[in-house]
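Appendix C reproduces, verbatim, an entry submitted by the partner laboratory led by Prof. M.T., so that reviewers can inspect both the input and the predicted structure.
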Amino acid sequence: MTTTPVPENWTIESSDGDSAARETRAAPVAKGSRIEDMDIVRGIALFGVLTMNLAMAFRIPFFGNPWEMPKALLERIVFRLELIFVAGRAMTLFSILFGVGLAIFLERASARGPGAMWLLARRLLFLTAFGLVHAFLIWNGDILVSYSLAGLIALPFIRRRTWVVFAAAGVFFLWHVFGHYWPWIRELTDRKVPGHFEEALRVYGTSSYWDIVRFRANEVTSMEMPGYVFLVPDELAKMLLGVAIWKSGVLRLEVRDKHQRALRWTAILGILYGTAFYIYRWIHFELYHPPRTPPSTFMQIALHWNAMNIACALGYGAVLLLLLRHTAWRRRLGIFAPLGRMAFTNYLTQSIVFTTVFYGYGFGLLGKFGLAFTALVGIAFYILQGIVSTVWLRHFRFGPFEWAWRSLTYGQLQPLRRAAVEV
């Protein structure tokens, strides 16, 4: 599954009038208050999310077997590169950034007035609504509902001490890793329907829009939603990790220079651990193909796989933050900031465009593209989204879906055009 973008930084501003009688009202942060580094990291992570969604969810039915190694040499190379450098890392980084965004929002909003927690809860509830529409009417690979549920559960922890948040993240991490082996969870999440993949390939590839909606509704309710008991703790652990990282001060611009050593070691150890684990997994499972692997070994693999994704995601993030300390690199990487600022719009646009490309009511190309060609399509579309995002933000303050989300959250239409704000 893919992941969704972190909320942009918000604040609570006072309305005009006498200070004693002012009413606090919700409003976006002032221009220049954004943390551009987070936009850049998020924009780069968006490419990884698109790449894996194209490889494993858009071009073939979502509830299939996307991990089967292709036979053609070029396809195998592309698949291997995606597994080594992308799979799980980009989605994990998005979840961590989402937690960072929750902490930033609540911190800034609370400093301006009461009602910050309710405003954030309201935002997450509207995210649930977006997610349900996305899951039932557009694409069943939705992650927005899981994000919103995890975010709501995370709310009571955000104002706790840093070590408490870290500890809670660890608890939910272990829930996700070991919970899958509890019988009642496995019964919910491991349902196998004979012939489902073949039926999904036929329905999604050849049917009308409303036939696909009916088929997808059954998938979402019977196969995806039961998995929330397994998926939400995973997202929650990563979000709380992001909250704890922000509270620790590592990401704060004014004190980041004090944490350069921590960032360097995070980059080195995180990426080395992830690479070493992948090599071990490849040798153990793909070269030797043990006929019978004991459950304890699978448990260790699950533990290390999840830990590796988190370590690598943190490593990638640390590398980017270290590079952004240098003016030349900041100038080069700054082209990704518009993609990050419009990540919510870009994520939903990817679903709309590629379901149209692959599904029967559109071009009907499901199952007809290999991994190599699909990767090229993804690169081209990502570049196009970067150009569109850059041009759009020259004229507007937010992406269209970001604007709709903000307006719903604040209960009033937000100014969209830049001219309307600057005047």
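Strands lie at 10-14, 24-28. Additional entries are available on request from the coordinating office.
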